[in-house]
Specification:
Elements: H1 7-12, H2 15-20, H3 26-35, H4 39-58, H5 65-75, H6 85-155, E1 161-166, E2 175-181, E3 186-190, E4 201-209, E5 212-219, E6 225-228, E7 236-243, E8 255-260
Helix pairs in contact: 4-6
């Protein structure tokens, strides 16, 4: 036993651990091999070996079956021998290095896969959003196309009468066009030329039948071409400004335009 280091110092110095993984100088290696002649130190070293081997095996990856079979064929006929301490130490060091490399590789692969999956999910979400936008735009285009076709069919019908309504002194800049078809009993109004009103007021269309004003409907805000109620035997069409939602009777002093039917 080395006089410069007692048994307790040897066990607590970490020298045995460093020897086990091959991180000692030649001088320290010779010292440890002398210390291992002591039964208590040898027992402690054996426990260290077992602990390190267990750690290595917990992180190991099973080899392919063909590798295992080939190895067993080579060693099957040989008599097992107790490997020297240095051989065990080198093998354990290799196990630990392989386990650490595999753990690092697994960590890098997992992070790469996680990053890739997140990127794919982001791209899918972007595609979904773009598809939703394109779907909404296509729906709007289809509606606009249908509206244009419908408007063309109404206004180009030979049986449709076009009536231009010009503003009076209450609203000189106002213009509107009504399209009436007495055969189909339909009335449509192009209200694009009517000045915008506040939220508190709406335009309302009336039919004059033998001096009685009959409601043909409120001209909805934001609609340029819309269907109104057809009234039989109307002599004229009239537009007034009414409280929002319309009135039961026209506000005559707020009449802005009218047109007589032929």
């Amino acid at each position: 036993m080395d006089a410069m280091m007692d048994k307790k110092e040897i066990l607590e110095s970490g020298l045995l651990e460093r020897y086990l993984i091959g991180e000692v100088s030649e001088t320290e290696q010779l010292q440890v091999e002398r210390y291992l002649q002591d039964s208590e130190i040898r027992k402690h070293y054996g426990q260290l070996e077992a602990d390190f081997e267990r750690m290595a095996m917990e992180n190991a990856v099973s080899p392919p079956p063909q590798v295992k079979e080939g190895l067993m064929d080579k060693v099957g006929s040989k008599t097992p021998q107790q490997p020297p301490i240095n051989a065990n130490r080198s093998a354990l060091k290799s196990y630990l290095a392989i386990a650490a490399a595999l753990a690092l590789l697994f960590g890098i692969s997992s992070f790469w896969m996680y990053t890739k999956l997140n990127g794919v999910e982001d791209q899918l979400e972007l595609v979904r959003s773009q598809n939703d936008i394109l779907s909404d735009e296509l729906e709007d285009l289809t509606k606009n196309y249908d509206d244009v076709i419908n408007t063309y069919e109404i206004t180009s019908n030979p049986k449709t009468e076009k009536l231009i309504m010009l503003g009076n002194q209450n609203s000189p800049q106002a213009t509107a066009v009504t399209y009436v078809n007495h055969t189909d009993k339909t009335v449509f109004i192009d209200a694009e030329g009517l000045p915008k009103l506040s939220e508190e007021h709406d335009y309302q269309l009336w039919a004059d039948v033998e001096g009685e004003m009959i409601d043909m409907g409120v001209i909805a805000k934001g609609e340029n071409f819309l269907a109104m109620n057809y009234i039989d035997h109307a002599e004229s069409y009239n537009i007034t400004i009414e409280p929002a939602g319309g009135s039961d009777h026209p506000t005559v002093e707020r009449l802005i335009t009218n047109v007589y039917l032929q």
